[in-house]
Write a structure and sequence with these properties.
Length: 288
Amino acid sequence: MRPPFLVCPLQPDLLKQLQGYQIILRIPELEQVEQAVEQVNRASIRLECLYVTSRLALGLQPVSEKLKGIPLALRVPSMGLMRDVAIRLPLLRQLSIRVFMPMDSTENLTSIRILASLGIACTVLPGTKNIKWDLFSDLASYALLGLTPHGSIEPFHTLAREYQPAGRTELGGAWFTHPEKFIHVDSQGRFAFSQDELDREEFAGAGLQELHGIFETPAFQKHQEQWREQFLTFGGCATCPGWRICRGTFSVQAAENPECRKAFQEILDIVELKQAADVRGNHQVWQL
Ligand code: SF4
């Protein structure tokens, strides 16, 4: 198994201990990018990307030429006004950027489609509110089967690349919660398998020295087996046709609104169509 990426905050004392690891550095706003890059260089660590968890809409982001060449995962609550985004668009298209946006509003799902159509790579984050499942599966169809060129939309491209009928597909890899790939670290070096677990203080380790051999620990094994709890009751996720790609990611929402089942069944069909098309290639009958 490859060593995991460490998702950690901008904390100079912590960074000094992270040499040899691949790092995703979490910062709250784009204004801190320069400071973050300076500290990364000073600590001589390998930066995979900066994960900016901003409270500002995309249209209010202070994008500038200085961001060129820096890999950015920019999480925003919404797109904001199209006119503000349009002003920033020429520069956004020159950046190494992926825009993350939660799927808990119709506007956001529409915004992601607009941004992708403008060539911006996007990631749909799980939402907490009422999700428009029909729009979500429409977006999957656009992402994987749309004929016009567009920016990639995650998690759909990851699904199309990694899904195997008999294998294990982790949807959360698209938003840094794949337990085999990402470990989340707090400023004191304690770590967990997701930011939510860190926030709830459900630590898998109390210090970086415990990272060695993390995949052999009972904490990791327990985390990997959590999915079994979905099968303790018959119904819900246990009988869902989309389980193989969702694995209960939206089980909280599903308890209130089981429409996710239909959406993930459709997305599974789309993923299989996409994989079949990729194997076949793009040859058209009239090209033979
Ligand atoms: S789509 Fe809904 S019901 Fe199906 S596995 Fe996911 S959360 Fe559970």
